[in-house]
Design a protein that fits this description.
single chain; 211 residues; mainly alpha; 3-stranded antiparallel beta sheet; two-stranded antiparallel sheet; 7 helices; 5 strands; 50% helix; signal; Trigger_fact/SurA_dom_sf; SurA N-terminal domain-containing protein
Length: 211
Amino acid sequence: MHRRRRTALSVSVALLAATPLLAACGSDAHPGAAAVVDGDRIEVAALQAQVRDVRSAQEASPQAKQLIEATGDLNREKLNGMIFDRVVRKVADDQGITASRKEVQETRRAAAAQSGGEEQLAAMLLQQQGVAPDEIDDVVRRNVLMNKIAAKLGAGNTPEGQQKLTEVFAAASKALDIDVNPRYGTWDNAKIQLGEYRAPWLRQSPEQRQM
């Protein structure tokens, strides 16, 4: 895709996150579930709802054809993100970190201002990360938490810092006992991602580069 613009939504870590249009009904062990994380089910219906939201937003875009072609793996992309969100929350809870509504709103406003407005921010996230408009707050919250985690762990934008973050997230991922419906692949605790899928992450330089 196009070169990414820096925004306040980016994080100083290269952690992965984030899916083929498969009509899966769930594994034999967990019928109807796309994955089970720490005993909590991620229902196929919830996954498909996210996919529909993204596809609807893409179809309404002037670049609909390109956007849809670029996200052919959307089911796995969205499932990857739904699981990764739970890993982030696990790490945040373990570290005593929260993201207030005010922080989320302020971060979103800053990102929109840098992007040229809310409409431009929404278009950028749809294009670069397959994020539907009503998912933006969730993406912002995730990045606020990740920035706070990196800061608390003293993990700067260095190889050592990245390794430290990866180890913490990998440990949390393993503790969650993530079980993915085999129709969507398998979860890799060491890589903190679904199979070989690698999702684009908006990045941020040290000191959360000011826009």
